[in-house]
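SEQUENCE-TO-STRUCTURE ENTRY
===========================

Subject: a protein chain together with a token-level encoding of how that chain folds.

Sequence line: the amino acid chain in single-letter code, read from start to end.

Question of interest: how does this chain fold, as expressed in backbone structure tokens?
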Amino acid sequence: MLSSATKSLKRFVKPWFASIDLRLMALCEKFPYLANIYFCLDRSFEREHHAVVAGRRRYERSIQGASTASHVYRLRRNTHRLEKGLISRPLREVFALTYLQETIESFVTLYQDHPTEADDPLLQWSRSVLSEYFRATSQSNAPTLEECRHNYEQLIERLHPSTCEKKPQRRDTTPLSTSIEDMQKLAIRRRSVRWYDSTPVPRDVIDKAVEVAGLSPSACNRQPFKFRIFDDPKLVTKLASIPMGTRGFSHQFPVFIVIVGELHAYPFSRDRHVIYIDSSLAAMALEFALEVQGIATCSINWPDIPHLEKKIAEALNLSPDERVIMCMSAGYPDPEGLVPYSQKKTLDELRSYNQQ
């Protein structure tokens, strides 16, 4: 009886709250600063706020010596910034002074963990770019630059000579054998497949696709994400049942992939959306790379739902700053399985030129 009365009360109160909510949103739209108060009451962004703060805190603690994780991201970012300076027209006599010292600091810190340069492609790349930078700025006698040059050269003297050339270069302009028609065929062929053959997917096939995905563009080349891949049937069943929308077919996924963004890649809150941008760029490349090898995929949405966030965080042992971006199933497609038609937007719906 109480349960029935409670349900009736909820049905009565829900439209009333919805009406108030609409009025509050209209007020917040008119006066943007009120949105801060609104979301103090509505806790929808609570997990994102916490993750951003946790990521910034983890970044700073790492830079201060707690680990080398953030030094990796800082070195990736700053090496890329140096490269952009090296390809500028005209080339400036001196640049990068505001972040050069911290770049050398991260370079030295990471070299202490990887004394053999050949073991770490990041250090190979950074060393090559730093050497090119100091050659390009050899005519400058700016104090900061001279100090950094001295520290860098002292380190290089203790290292083996490097023949690695990972510095700015001319882009390959050789005509591709792949046409736009080929690309369109691939895009049409790739569908969201939910029914799979039971044939196991070889890991080398997946790894080749991940390598392609790793070539996707990334803001300042940080690549703040990881592909958590599962092919153990028990783990696949456990994890694939967590997202919404997989009921009824998740039991037969051969492979389940969770893409996780890492907010400790950033010292500033302004970059909090980059994990979603970079991960999504890589995810699409991953799906195409799997498709050309005969492996079908299905992108699985991951909305921010508190109890599911907690469940998957525990299952994956995620740190507070690690955010699930999306999930993906993969496997050889069942030839008898159907796929939705999914009419896409037309060209005119998708694009405009010059603010038209």
